[in-house]
């Protein structure tokens, strides 16, 4: 990967603080539960903003298993320019935060949520997509750990796909946004070090 490519990849992601229902994007991701019929947190905010037709529609879907995703119209949110909602069900955290990243069943399920949402976005030609910090509220997934998984899966997907063109990580607090900025900074340093370290370079 060239330096220019890694820079342009990072330009395709953005961290914002705010309400996901107010983001100027084509689609938003909902951190739902398996019923898809609404709940608290970001799920409650999205159902309130999308209106009762969302729940009526979701009754016809028969729920969604943890780690999978479903796409729906955005109903009343269409007046704000949002065309789709991608509902995914994150894992409930029950592990130890000190285990190696990727070793927990919950890590794999959370990665699957991001992958499924990105696949659906690409299939539906979604240009701009906003994610909340899936599973890090009521479901208690450790925030730093979740941000690393979110970032690495989004970057890997963007490397091989033109759509979505832009992914926004929509945080609900400045503290949560700081966690994403830190994950991006670490990733950027790692990418740069890989690009400058050439053990076989005769000029070294
Ligand atoms: N915009 C952006 N992010 C938000 C918003 C908002 N309007 N509201 C909350 N957040 P959570 P989970 C953040 O609990 O952990 C529901 O009851 C919040 O600060 O919404 O996946 C569902 O029905 C946190 O960073 O989702 C499920 O039963 C993040 O969104 C369960 O909660 C996720 O927190 C899912 O739990």
Notes on the structure:
- Mean pLDDT is 93; it is low at 1-5.
- The radius of gyration is 18 Å and the shape is globular.
- The protein has a six-stranded mixed beta sheet, sandwiched between helices.
- The two termini are 20 Å apart.
- It has helices spanning 3-11, 41-50, 52-59, 105-123, 143-160, 174-196, and strands spanning 13-17, 27-32, 69-73, 84-89, 128-131, 166-171.
- The protein has one domain: Leucine Aminopeptidase, subunit E, domain 1, CATH 3.40.220.
- The longest helix has 23 residues, at 174-196.
- It has 204 residues and is an alpha/beta fold.
- The chain is built from six helices and six strands.
- Helix 4 packs parallel to helix 5 and helix 5 (143-160) packs across helix 6.
- Helix 5 (143-160) links the parallel strand 5 and strand 6.
- The chain binds ligand AR6.
- Ligand AR6 binds next to strand 2 and helix 2.
Which terms summarize this structure?
204 residues, alpha/beta, Leucine Aminopeptidase, subunit E, domain 1, 6-stranded mixed sheet, 6 helices, 6 strands, 43% helix, binds ligand AR6
How would you summarize the topology of this molecule?
Layout: H1 3-11, E1 13-17, E2 27-32, H2 41-50, H3 52-59, E3 69-73, E4 84-89, H4 105-123, E5 128-131, H5 143-160, E6 166-171, H6 174-196
Parallel strand pairs: 1-6, 2-4, 2-5, 5-6
Antiparallel strand pairs: 3-4
The chain binds ligand AR6.
- Classified by CATH, the class is Alpha Beta
Tell me the structural class. Answer: alpha/beta
In which range does the helix fraction lie? 40-55%
Per CATH, which architecture? 3-Layer(aba) Sandwich
What's the tally of helices?
6
Query: For the record, what is the CATH homologous superfamily label?
Result: Leucine Aminopeptidase, subunit E, domain 1
Ligands in the model, by name, code or SMILES, are:
ligand AR6
Number of strands: 6
Shape: globular
- Stretches where pLDDT falls below 50 for ≥5 residues? 1-5
Distance between the termini: 20 Å
Determine Rg (CA atoms, Å). Answer: 18 Å
Largest sheet, if any?
6 strands, mixed
Strand neighbour order, sheet with most strands:
1-6-5-2-4-3
How many independent structural domains?
A: 1
**Which sequence of SSEs, written as H and E, runs from N to C?**
HEEHHEEHEHEH
According to CATH, the fold-level topology is: Leucine Aminopeptidase, subunit E, domain 1
DSSP strand content? 15-25%
Mean pLDDT: 93
